[in-house]
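=== Structure Prediction Worksheet ===
Name of assembly: unnamed complex
Input type: mixed (protein and possibly other molecules)
Chain count: two
Listed entries:
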Amino acid sequence: MSIKDEIIFLGGGRIKDVLSLIKDCDFDMFEEIRFRAEKPAFITKNGVEYVLSENGELLEHFKNAFIPSSEDINIFVNVLSGYSLYAFEEEIKNGYITVEGGHRVGISGKAIVENGQVLAINNFYSINIRISHEIKGCAKNIVPFILNDKKVINTIIVSPPGVGKTTLLRDIIRILSKSGKNISVADERGEIAGSWQGITHNDIGPRTDVMDSCPKKEGMLTLLRSMSPEVIAVDELGREDDIKALDTILSAGVSVICTVHGKNAYDAFRRIGIEKNSHKEYFGVFIELKRVNNSILAIIKDDNLNVIGKELIR
Amino acid sequence: MTLKIIGMTAVIASSWIIGVIFSMKSYFRLEDIEELKKAVTIFLNDTVNSSMALSVVFKDISQKTKGGVSAIFKDAENLILTKNGNLAKDMLKKAIDKNIKNTYFEYEELECFYSFANSIDSINKEQQRNNARLLIDSIQILISDINKKAAKERRLYNSAGILCGILICVVLV
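=== Predicted Assembly ===
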């Protein structure tokens, strides 16, 4: 199934109709599609933002822009969930739904709050479809940097949202798995494997075990106990107790490859709570992703944060 | 005379059988309501405890129930998979309307079924749980009412069948 088919099949109503009018070839280069109630729809393609027209064309102006209503947004989300919003209760509380193919749909709307906790979100106002791209081979030149005599070095991939952390992590997992490593993936948001109803839709290699829809900390520790992995991979670390899970995994002699939001390695340390100058105890390789024109550059650094390589991954 | 006796016996037996057939109607109705109760119980388990998607829940129900109820959920599953509707309740109602002729449902249980359909687009499991439990309670009350009514009806139709047969014989002889 092409990315266009996957995205169109997701939802329903008028939004689906407009999406189906977009040219097939354009879809492969899309990064995000944003719909807001009573506002023009936007599409980010190769880092450049366009306005989506009612005819499915990408415009640089607002004339003939497609403006979805609040009802269109709600219908799209309801159909997107397979008419099963209740089944995505936990994800919706966190503001997103991950759908078949690993595409993540961010949602905002009216939050129902009780005792300071979000119970649910209804009356959706806007959606942001982040398109998952599987770029096989993008990590081919990066994997040698994270191997030391066949042992995987603990690695952290850092970039702002939407630059390609998950895409790179997925390809690293696939390559390592194919090379003989048993890898376990704590895939809380289902974006790495693109799991949908028990089937992984992305190629993550033959020796990869996935625990999806499970909080990262619990997922990592369960995988450590149950699957005897050589490497544990996890996307978007950043919660307070993630560092405790990292301590447990590293003390068990298992390698970790993870991604963190941030501009550079220091942002990542702050985010996951690694104290100053103690990063060497945790990680040996740091990969910072940067957007350069229409390409993504990976800057690879060693444990002293000296640059040891630069590779274009897209 | 022998011929008359044989004829009278045949007439009485036939009218008694007609009475029995009429009394069986409430039995079939009860059977369908029991199937509906089973469907809602499966729904409750699959949605609340297993977080299954609605299409999978409907498939599961159609496989585990029989008769018209099974056909309704099978059709609803197919409609949901096409993703052509805006709300699940519309699709379930469409499936009910299409298959209603294959069931023995009457007004009360149809009301229950439609109100169930109206509630399936809930946004969280708590709502699904409450709606399903409410429906199970309503069905339970309905079953006990119909059971009482059915016992009376069985006696009534059986007796009426025999009495009609005797009446026909008296008139004709």
